[in-house]
Amino acid sequence: MTEMSGNKLTKKERMAIPRQPMPEQDPEERVKGFTEVPYGYSPETAIQEATRCLECKKPRCVAGCPVTIDIPAFVARVAAGDFRGAIRKIKETNMLPAICGRVCPQETQCEIVCVLAKKYAPVAIGRLERFCADWERDSGEVEIPDKAPDTGKKVAVVGAGPAGLTVAIDCARAGHQVEVFEALHKPGGVLVYGIPEFRLPKAIVQAEVETAAKLGVTLHYNQVIGQIETLDELLGRFDAVFLGTGAGLPLFMRIPGENLIGVYSANEYLTRSNLMKAYDFPHYDTPTLVGGKVAVIGGGNVAMDSARTAQRLGADKVYLVYRRSRKEMPARDEEIHHAEEEGIDFHLLTNPTSIIGDDQGRATHMECIKMELGEPDASGRRRPLPIEGSEYRMEVGTVVVAIGNSPNPLVPQTTPDLEVGRWGNVVADEKTGRTSKRGVFAGGDIVTGAATVILAMGAGRAAGASINDYLTTGIWDLPEQPAEETPPTTSPPSTAK
Question: CB-hemisphere CA count at 13 Å for 117?
Fold first, then answer.
């Protein structure tokens, strides 16, 4: 037992404490608006939850965290009521804790390896991280970390998503001059265009981004690198460039009718609502179809976000159409649970085969076929197989396709000597982020395909350290064997994520 925690309970007494639930809005109320669903822990509840930690001699939770937060140390400080010390410990390796505490899949990373999980519910590490970040922000005394002396080196970061922001902050802390080039009119990447307000309030994203600005990072908006300026031109002005442009190219099913009016990619649908605030009518007049019957295709977090958004925009009925069973859904259990609570109608083991429209080109129905599960495929999940003669028609006026995304192609298309894989992902070393082009680093979804926010941040941390090493030593060692390319995921988190 650490001295810091002040925990006087025995191991047996701590194991007897149940995992503390997160208070949240009633489903019937929360579907009427876009305010955040969970309320967060109170100080008393946070201390109670942190007290459950067994303070293992060989904790495995740290290895499960892509940004290697010293989890036992920060949890011990929460248990002792030292919230300031807890957030300082978190920020040693993670400068976006309010975001990670809300959207990262802790249940499959740090929490799944918690010793308590063998017989009991694991410590709610993500909820405690969120509590610490919110406590600091609400106190009005957010601390900005110290910076190293100015090195005179300049770093360009392309993309202000989770990976890019992490690199920008780490490089600024190392004393380098950093400029971020973002294609959209707001920073955050998938955090602002992909994840709905009820899961991640945009004011929180903005507050986290302000940390970068206070460290001296310059952010440029409406800057589409690959069009207004090439990568080679950036290298003429900067000593190193990081590519964090994400996976913003939506995938479609390639079935008849996907070009009908009323058929959206999840990217467009969520961007209209989240970034362009279609949900806040009449203060914003972003056009989007509302009401009627909506079908969302997919089983990941993006699909859950799209379905829950459609419900809040006034749909008469929302169907979630997924070709496998609930067990195979890649979405977080919490998101599936919330969608079920909110009345989303799940059509599992179902696959769309075509979308049918009227004589004006508007979607009116979707043709589907029932599926059954066969042997596992390359993803490790059982392969869905069509059941002959099980076709049926579903009445819908809006269809949202949420089956995945592929990496943004703009920069690779204008940089011939930048190696890319056959899926369009930039080939980069997993441990350093170094690409085939000297001085160019890459990380996040542009390398892996659509993945999670925290994995993108982990890649950003690795690349930031590698950039600093390169700018300090001038040594550029290409990896002998580039990291194996990963095809775009077919069920993206929203993260993305």
Answer: 16
Instruction: From 127, 128, 171, 135, select the one nearest 153 (Cα to Cα).
Output: 171
At residue 58's C-alpha, the angle toward residues 56 and 62, to 5°, is: 90
CA distance 241 to 62: 29
> What is the C-alpha to C-alpha distance for residues 421 and 335, in angstroms, rounded to an integer?
32
Place of tokens 């930039």: 426
pLDDT tens-digit series, residues 62-78: 999 999 999 999 999 99
Nearest to 197 by CA among 37, 307, 405: 37
Are 72 and 82 spatial neighbours (Cβ–Cβ below 8 Å)? no
What whole-number distance in Å separates Cα of residue 69 and Cα of residue 87?
11
- Encoded amino acid at 23, one letter: P
Is residue 382 a contact partner of residue 328, using CB atoms and an 8 Å limit? yes
Residues contacting residue 443 through CB under 8 Å, at least 6 positions apart: 163, 167, 242, 243, 244, 428, 433, 456, 459, 460, 462, 463
Task: List pLDDT tens digits, range 414-443.
Answer: 999 999 998 899 999 999 999 999 999 999
Question: pLDDT digit string (tens) for 277-321?
Answer: 877 777 777 767 677 999 999 999 999 999 999 999 999 999 999
**What is the Cα–Cα distance from 382 to 396, expressed in whole angstroms?**
28
Domain annotation for the chain: domains and CATH numbers? 11-139 (1.10.1060.10), 154-248+406-473 (3.50.50.60), 253-403 (3.50.50.60)
Q: How far apart are CA 449 and CA 467, in angstroms?
A: 22
Cα–Cα distance for residue pair 374/386, rounded to 1 Å = 10
For residue 436, give Cα distances in angstroms to 392, 418, 421, 433: 50, 6, 12, 10
Amino acid letter for position 390: S
| 407 HSE (CA, 13 A, CB side) | 28
Q: Are 459 and 483 within 8 A, CB to CB? A: no
* Residue 52 tokens, joined: 């459950």
Six-digit token string for 60: 């495995």
Question: In what side-by-side order are the strands of the sheet with 263-265?
Answer: 263-265, 398-401, 293-297, 317-321, 345-347
Backbone angles phi and psi of 353, in degrees to 5:
-115, -20
The pTM of the whole model exceeds 0.85: yes
